[in-house]
Design brief:
mainly beta; 2 domains; 7-stranded mixed β-sheet; 4-stranded antiparallel β-sheet; 3 helices; globular
Length: about 250
């Protein structure tokens, strides 16, 4: 039986993941997930593949109260309003074209200190624009196969920052679901293309240090996408029927 083994979210794109026991999956994704992103002094979005310090910070977002808390490696935290001050930002860095409003607060100075340069948080206007798809899926079978190919005992799924990790699947079984509808708890999704991977996956999720060449291992045994040479792992998913998803919920092909 296939089930939901883990749910992973973060209100700030690239920051350390949280693992709620349940989420509401809407057409545009999980409310508040990746609602905020980080920009540099030039106003362009900073990407996790180039900023390992992202995974050293964590954040909590209270959507009802519009309050954000950023937690730092030294154990301190900064809490403030998440509404933004009205200053507008447009950034087209990487594969995402985003607009939003600057959210300065008590986190700005300590976050810049960790980054080693001036950085700011931005609240995205459109939650759907912050990701290639509202949901992503990876299976325990795929993680196990990659661990075996990499000659390690196990592989932490946090490296891949997927919304849903599934248990009870064959290696890369999720790839076979492309174009199909899958019920995940109380929601139904349509599975899309495989997810392109970047250098974030080569870093330990806790320390942000490079410790495993996941991209090379994946390319060696799975190859690269012919059109652009990208390495692929896991799949995107689009929400056809919103609903609540809990850890332990059954997963069923329709």
């Amino acid at each position: 039986m296939k089930t939901v083994a883990r749910i992973s979210t973060s209100p700030v794109k690239g920051f350390r993941l949280r693992h709620p026991s349940e989420v509401e999956l809407r057409v545009d994704g999980v409310p508040g997930n990746r609602r905020f992103f980080v920009i540099g002094a030039d106003g362009e979005r900073l990407r996790g593949s180039q900023t390992p310090w992202f995974s050293l910070l964590a954040a909590d977002y209270d959507e009802g109260a519009e309050e954000l808390t950023v937690r730092f490696p030294d154990g301190t935290a900064a809490t403030g309003s998440a509404r933004g001050d009205g200053e507008r930002i447009h950034t087209a860095a990487g594969s995402l074209d985003l607009e939003g409003v600057i959210v300065d607060g008590p986190w700005t100075e300590p976050m810049s200190a960790v980054a080693g340069e001036p950085v700011r948080l931005v609240r995205a206007d459109d939650l759907a624009a912050v990701a290639q798809a509202p949901a992503t899926i990876v299976s325990d079978g795929s993680l196990g196969r990659l661990a075996a190919e990499a000659s390690v005992d196990s592989l932490d799924s946090r490296r891949f920052r997927m919304l849903f990790e599934l248990a009870g699947c064959r290696a890369h079984e999720e790839d076979e679901w492309q174009g199909l509808h899958v019920r995940i708890g109380g929601a139904v999704v349509r599975v899309g293309d495989e997810v392109t991977r970047c250098a974030v996956t080569t870093r330990d999720p806790d320390t942000a240090t490079r410790d495993l060449d996941t991209l090379r291992v994946l390319a060696d045994y799975r190859g690269r996408r012919e059109s652009d040479g990208m390495v692929l792992f896991g799949v995107y998913a689009y929400v056809e029927q919103p609903g609540r998803v809990r850890v332990g919920d059954p997963v069923e092909l329709l």
